[in-house]
Amino acid sequence: MKLTLDTNSLIYLFEHSATAPNRSKDALKGLLRRSLDGQLSIAATTRVRADLLQDKDEARRIGILQVLEDVPILPTIAGWDESSWNSDVWTTEQLAELVREVEAIVFPSLSLTDKRYHNKRQDIAHLVGHKLNKRDVFVTDDQAILKKSGALERGPGIIVRSPSECENYFEETDRAARSVSLLPTRLDVRFESKPFCATARFDYSNNDGRFTIGTGLHLFETSWSKGSDQEIRVYNDPPSIATVAKALGYAQISTIKDASIFDTSSRSRLISVGEIAIWRNTNGFYAATRVLSIADDTRNNSANADEVVFEYVILTSGADFRDSRN
User: Fold this and answer.
1) Which of 59, 124, 198, 278 is the most exposed place for a label (fewest CB within 10 A)?
2) Residue 229 and residue 121: Cα distance in Å, rounded?
3) Which secondary structure element, helix H or strand E, spans residue 318, and what is its range?
């Protein structure tokens, strides 16, 4: 698992005042030990050094810089007076869109008159650098970011955890068959949707009926085939899928308390419009897909192509889809 540390998490390691959360300090020490043991990878973005220039505690700053000597430093979006030559990535339209998306989620009213404008821009750059370098979990004690963790997961697919949450998250995913980043069998951007919560549509007669949702540890290469204009069949055949089930009795994904209770004994399930399929990938994570509509080009010539439209949610821990963190 690849973690990216926010600056405030590093500062807490060297903070001895009563305001420093001991739980976070202990969890960070545990994560660092796991890193030294090779159980996970820890990195930070180039903005950490820029943040430290504002730290008036010289002893703490020196201590953090010593830690950073053993930590990979990741490039993020380049900024004037913040990036050294070749240390960061110059803006592209795709990268600019990611910056706008993160800003709209975490700091939707950000303006130049904000007293913390510079710090908030740095926070955005940390998150963008994390996503840009395809890291798994962003670790922070910043409550403004943690409060938006659900939206960050559902939107740009950025998983955010506090140090203590991250330690629990690591233990859970470690138990799930030693999680590994997954790849679809067919790499085609026309048949993928990377956010962890979205609506997708595709022609299931193409790409052998496969459509990928999520990324990395939380990737699901879903598999579909023709049924009719009212039902469609799903399969657990792709390498990333461990099981598939029908969520009998449930009309909305957000009402499912425990995704593990459904019958997974069959290779395939027939899912009607309005019904929900539950997928578990080989890392032990769950996703739910709810079919919104089906087009079948063999039914009375009413459709020009085969198409399924579905909404989905991917869980980054546990089996409870009722969690709706803002």
Assistant:
1) 59
2) 48
3) none
